[in-house]
Every structure is written in C-alpha cells, then in structure tokens.
C-alpha cells in the first residue's frame, strides 16, 4: 500500500516575513500545526512571538511568505476574514473595554462570531466566575477575570484555531493555575491551539509541541518530550 499522504496542517506559515514600518521582525518563519495540535511558542522577550500571532490574525501585514488556514491562503487578508475562517485570538493584555459590562462583551462576540458548539451556556459553564460578574463593567474585574473574559469572548466566536498570547501575564500564581486549567479543558475539547506563554510549566502542561524562536526565526521545533529531555538547551535558549 502506498504511504498515506501527509495531512495538511490546519494552520501553517511558510517563509513568513513581517514587521513594522518597513523594519523586519520576522525573517521567514515556518510553523505547522495539525488539527487538534497544541503548539507552545516560546522565546525571550522581543524575539517576535506576538508579531507572529498578530500577523497570522491579520493585524500586522506580512511583507512576504504564506499563512494558510485549512489549506487556504490568508496572508494579507483582513482580521475579520481570518476570524470568519475560524481563527480566534486571545490578545496580549486582554483588551477588555472598561465601560462595557461582561454581558455586553459577550453580546458582541455572539453577534459577530460563527455559530457552533461554544454557546454562551457552555462558555459560562467553563468559566463560572464570569456568570456571577455578568453586570460588572470591564474595569471592575480583576486581572484573572479579565483574562477569563478574553478567553470567553474568543470561544464564543467558535474558532477552530485559538491563538493565545501570554494568557498568564501579570496574574498571581493561584490565578495562573486556574487559567491553565481552562486552557487545558479547551485543548482537551479538541481545539487547535497556538499559545505564547512565558510560564514554562503552564506551556508544557498544555502543549504537545514546542517552537522556540530567536531573533525573528524558528530556532528549535520539537515535541514536548524532546524539549523536556534537553533541559539545558531549553534553559540556554530561554535564558532561565
Ligand atoms: N506595534 C509595533 N510597532 C513597532 N515595533 C513593534 C510593535 N510591536 C512590537 N514591535 C517590536 O517588534 C519586536 C518584536 O516584538 P514582539 O512583541 O513580537 O516580541 P515578543 O517575542 O512577543 O516579546 P514579548 O515577550 O516582550 O511580548 C520588538 O523589537 C518590538 O519592540
């Protein structure tokens, strides 16, 4: 029997070059995630992790290279088109609007997102604290609650691929653990995930694959098991 053809990754970049005002931050990045895969994107500050996520989402315009979602080329497409193809973003810094209530945030995602299995009931079931805070404004929420809201908002758009940019940033250790549990549940539900995360323990607890970036390029692309076996190299690359 001939060997089965390699399955098309659901999210892939090839030779992706991107940056700001003509200056390059990404110098030809190749990543590929199979359906249901969870990739942790690691690297020191400023290597271009957020730039990669924002370029995939269409928020930063690529200068060259390709981004494909389920085989469809989307490099240079607008963020709303990329979202419609099933890419959801939990942005760095959460981007919660102070004057809007939790319910109003969720209404916006409900209206603008795709229909699917992530209903409001399911999302509140996953994030019960938000259910208790429905009438509270964004600026009345703790950092952890804002992060939960950012995750809820993205899930309500029913993505098939979720991009998470530093979900544990600035949170107390107990809250980091809660965020980790939520991310693990979302992954266990079969979501394809690309997560940028400084908290190595959290990153390795959710991911099956690791990409370490250096200076705008992929430096190391390995399974989590291989990463754990090369602890010294990992520490050297990440400066920990
Ligand atoms: N909006 C922007 N305009 C101009 N330069 C930017 C912008 N955003 C990021 N940069 C620059 O691009 C480079 C990569 O930043 P990026 O945020 O992608 O890195 P990162 O790996 O996500 O780092 P961190 O962990 O600090 O968030 C940095 O030199 C940064 O100053």
UniProtKB/TrEMBL annotation:
InterPro entries: AAA+_ATPase, ABC_transporter-like_ATP-bd, ABC_transporter-like_CS, BCAA_Transport_ATP-bd_LivF, P-loop_NTPase. GO terms for molecular function: ATP binding; ATP hydrolysis activity; branched-chain amino acid transmembrane transporter activity. Keywords: Amino-acid transport, ATP-binding, Nucleotide-binding, Transport. Residues 11-240 form the ABC transporter domain. CDD domains: ABC_TM1139_LivF_branched (cd03224). The keyword Transport applies. One of its GO terms (biological process) is L-amino acid transport. Belongs to the ABC transporter superfamily. PANTHER family: ABC TRANSPORTER ATP-BINDING PROTEIN, HIGH-AFFINITY BRANCHED-CHAIN AMINO ACID TRANSPORT ATP-BINDING PROTEIN LIVF. This is ABC transporter ATP-binding protein. The lineage of its organism: Bacteria, Bacillati, Actinomycetota, Actinomycetes, Micrococcales.
């Amino acid at each position: 029997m001939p060997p089965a053809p390699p399955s098309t990754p659901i999210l892939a970049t090839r030779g992706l070059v991107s940056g700001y005002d003509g200056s390059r931050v990404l110098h030809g990045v190749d990543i590929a995630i199979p359906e249901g895969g969870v990739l942790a994107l690691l690297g020191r500050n400023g290597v271009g992790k957020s730039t990669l996520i924002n370029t995939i989402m269409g928020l930063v315009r690529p200068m060259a290279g390709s981004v494909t979602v389920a085989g469809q080329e989307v490099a240079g497409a607008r963020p709303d088109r990329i979202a419609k193809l099933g890419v959801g973003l939990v942005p760095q810094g959460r981007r919660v609007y102070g004057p809007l209530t939790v319910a109003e945030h969720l209404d916006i995602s409900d209206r603008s997102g795709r229909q699917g299995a992530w209903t409001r009931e399911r999302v509140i079931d996953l994030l019960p604290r938000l259910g208790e805070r429905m009438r509270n404004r964004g600026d009345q929420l703790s950092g952890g609650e804002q992060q939960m809201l950012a995750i809820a908002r993205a899930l309500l758009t029913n993505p098939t691929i979720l991009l998470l940019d530093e979900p544990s940033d600035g949170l107390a250790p107990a809250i980091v653990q809660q965020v980790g549990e939520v991310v693990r549940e979302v992954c266990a539900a079969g979501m394809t995930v690309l997560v940028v995360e400084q908290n190595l323990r959290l990153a390795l607890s959710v991911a099956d694959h690791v990409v370490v970036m250096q200076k705008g390029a992929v430096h190391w692309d390995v399974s989590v098991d291989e990463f754990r076996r090369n602890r010294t190299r990992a520490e050297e690359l990440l400066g920990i």
